[in-house]
Amino acid sequence: MRNLGLLVAGVVLLAGGLAGLGGLGLGLLGPGPLSVEAARGEWIFQTGTDPDTGEPIPYSGGMPMVMGCAGCHGPDGRGLRTPMFISPDITYRNLTDPGGMVEPDGSRGPRYTDELIRRAITVGVDAEGRPLAWPMPRWRLTDRQWQELLAYLKSLP
């Protein structure tokens, strides 16, 4: 009898696990697949290269090596702590929080709009017009690359 109870429990757990995996695959339990635009933006975010050509996107200033946003802000955009710098959470939800973005030290910073995010990425100044920290490059994005990157930032949880 005990073995039968264990068998039933195992089957129930297995069925629940399979149902959960199916729910993930259908997007019921987590984010669904990215749009084409957001997937291209993810490529830019992760690699710092153009999705069509694979060529590095030009930039000035910042770190002396070619890498995408993820190199400093993490693969999920939530920021990183390194011996040289601490990068902020650049998820869209954080940047556009009505109370102001949560900085790495827990304080509240400025609130960003889409255009202010673009300015930060391309000009290197924050929402209040102050220069961003030295590691931040000034990316020379095309309008299409910007729209794709923004679509990806908006897709981050």
Task: Pick out the low-confidence regions.
Answer: 4-30
Structural category: mainly alpha
Q: Please give the CATH architecture of the largest domain.
A: Orthogonal Bundle
SSE sequence, one letter per element:
HHEHHHEH
How far is it from the N-terminal to the C-terminal residue, by CA? Answer: 46 Å
Beta content comes to: under 5%
Strands across the major sheet, in which order?
Answer: 1-2
| Overall pLDDT confidence | 85
CATH C-level of the largest domain: Mainly Alpha
Multimeric state: single chain
Number of discrete helical segments: 6
What are its keywords?
mainly alpha; Cytochrome Bc1 Complex, Chain D, domain 2; 2 domains; two-stranded antiparallel ribbon
Topology at a glance:
Blueprint: H1 2-25, H2 36-47, E1 59-60, H3 70-73, H4 92-95, H5 114-123, E2 138-139, H6 143-155
Antiparallel strand pairs: 1-2
